[in-house]
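Weekly modeling sync, notes
Attendees: S.R. (lead), two postdocs, one rotation student

Agenda item 3: backlog of single-chain predictions. S.R. asked that every request posted to the team notebook include the full sequence so nobody has to chase files. The rotation student volunteered to paste the first one in as an example of the format we agreed on. Action items at the bottom.

Example entry:
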Amino acid sequence: MRWRRRVWAGVVATHALACVAGCRDSGPAPAPAVTRPASQPDPWAEHQAPGDAGPAAEPVWFPAEDVVAAQVAELAGPALRGRGSGTADERRAADRVAQWMQEAGAEPGLSGRWLQPFTFEDGRTSQNVVGVIVGSDPAAGHVVVGAHYDHLGEVDGRIHPGADDNASGVAGLVGIAAALFHAGQRPRLTVVLVAFGAEEAGLHGSAHYAANPVRPLDRAVVMVNLDMIGRPEFLSAAEYRLARLLVPARGIGAITAPGGGGWVERARVAAVAEGRPLVSAGDFGSTVEAAIRPLVEYRGDHRSFAVHGVPYLWLSTSMHDDYHRPSDTADRVDPGTVAAVGRMVVRVIRAL
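Predicted structure, as returned to the notebook:
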């Protein structure tokens, strides 16, 4: 993820401004109690999955957490030196992700090839990794699931491992491929899995894929973007301490295009089945949602699909204080959270 103030900065700003207005002359004050009008439902009240949730509520096989942890550790390990956009380290990471996709059961997405090369900026080269799980109804359209695999590389002589940003999303992506290939879990819709290169340099990999898709984008039902899904505590960055008054600690963040097409509610049903609360900007009303959207709407790889009219569902456990720092290491990623988000995506896809 290439930008600093993420999904829930609008929540922080809204409530911080309220505190400043009330406390300017009297110094710091205790945090106000959080209240809601009686007519407004509490978004954190326990949700019950609908009785007709079908595959969204059924048990889901997913790779073991130690497999997820090993993949995060390898991508974020010193041998790949932070997978800088357009570097030989990024290319080695791409080759490894392609191998994992093959082992997961995906088919290469480009006429027998896994890698989709492209050039960007000053002639640097990168590549996307593209795999496909063919659904039981090939004529029913497809889903794109994506996660960028590059990071910052070496900055000022220090390697930035990018374990949560975004080795966590890539491990989730590979796990989703394996789960959808697993016996009894084949989806009806075909799923195109893309690990994007050169995201940190400006969303170049997703832009190239969207301009050169392996299946027509007008047949894409939704694009699911996995970016930073590995921290067990939602909004753990110090700058979000006010927002944490309003959100559950173990939440999974979700945002969709305006109107949403029901994707947040589909994800919420899947989150309930995983025992995790889903947090969406729309849960806090139109005023807060309007403050959040300009900050996040087009700040990740989902943007490249949104400009082509493809609905998107972006999932993230949001910011932490290790973001874009050498301290974003594999030991701080929770494989159980990565697996939970991965299973959520599998549930959503199988329910389509």
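Discussion: group reviewed the output briefly. The longest helix spans residues 163-181.
Action items: rotation student to repeat for the remaining queue; S.R. to check formatting next week.
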